[in-house]
Design a protein that fits this description.
Distance between the termini: 47 Å
Low-confidence stretches: none
CATH class of one domain: Alpha Beta
Structural class: alpha/beta
Radius of gyration: 18 Å
Shape: globular
Helix content: 25-40%
Mean pLDDT: 91
Number of helices: 9
Strand order of the largest sheet: 6-9-10-3-11-12
Number of strands: 12
Length: about 260
């Protein structure tokens, strides 16, 4: 495949409400690769996801984020989405009065810049629903209103499938899911993995990696990536725990850490 999309993060520092969170991140995610970003609470993983997507309130104080060779740090979230980035949020919001299907069609037209008929979009969406095992009833409901945690996350994966980005950041997609919901969501993501999609999977736990095999695993602590390796690194983290890894690396315990 030509023109492979690459997300390049170099020397990235960022703050939230004046507090330094990211302290020099270097990371490259290429279309077709799956990267797992792991680490304890408060390490900066979700901040990195939000900074990549340009969420307001997250201030880049140094370094750069480049996508397909372009510095995107000055772009709005919708401009980044149109270029082929996607963020599955940790806490999807409810939008009363807007059905899932209408939301997805509006998002599709915004991201793709295409005028698409309702019939043509329904066909495109239905193909993705069949692939992911999403029932018709879900897309006719209001967006995330009354959805269980598992339904919200499955809906995020349906959005990912419909919008067909080149690089997707999945921010703790496994958060709050029971075993059955985790399996449904994770197998949906695994179904989408392929040469056209690069994934940065943000997670605390190794369990989702039982269904999604990463090409690379990175450990983030105290606003930095402190270790990188292959899929076996996730198993090592599961066995040792983050505290032992922190001690082995000689990292000081963060102020206020519990």
């Amino acid at each position: 495949m030509s023109d492979v999309a690459t997300l390049e993060i170099r020397g990235l520092t960022a703050s939230v409400e004046g507090k330094d969170i990211l302290k020099g991140i270097d990371l490259t995610v290429t279309q077709g690769q799956t990267h797992a970003l792991m680490g304890p609470n408060g390490s900066g993983k979700s901040t990195l996801a939000n900074v990549i997507m340009g969420r307001p309130g997250y201030a880049v104080t140094g370094g750069e984020v480049r996508f397909k060779g372009e510095d995107i740090t000055g772009l709005t979230p919708d401009e980044r989405a149109r270029r082929g980035l996607f963020l599955a949020m940790q806490y999807p919001v409810e939008v009363p009065g807007v059905s899932v299907v209408n939301f997805l069609r509006t998002a599709y037209k915004s991201v793709k810049g295409d005028e698409i008929s309702a019939l043509a979009f329904r066909k495109h969406m239905k193909e993705k629903m069949v692939d992911l095992g999403v029932e018709d009833a879900m897309v006719n409901r209001y967006l995330n209103q009354g959805f269980s945690g598992g339904e919200k996350k499955r809906n995020e994966i349906l959005q990912l499938a419909v919008l067909e980005p080149q690089i997707a950041i999945l921010d703790e997609t496994d958060s709050g899911l029971d075993i059955d919901s985790l399996k449904q969501v994770a197998t949906g993501v695994a179904h989408l993995v392929g040469p056209d999609l690069g994934i940065l999977l943000v997670t605390h736990y190794q369990r989702i990696l039982n269904y999604i095999t990463p090409d690379h695993v990175h450990v983030m602590m105290q606003g930095r990536i402190v270790m990188s390796g292959g899929k076996e690194l996730a198993s090592e983290l599961e066995q040792k725990g983050y505290e032992e890894i922190r001690r082995e690396l000689g990292l000081e315990e963060p102020v206020g850490a519990k």
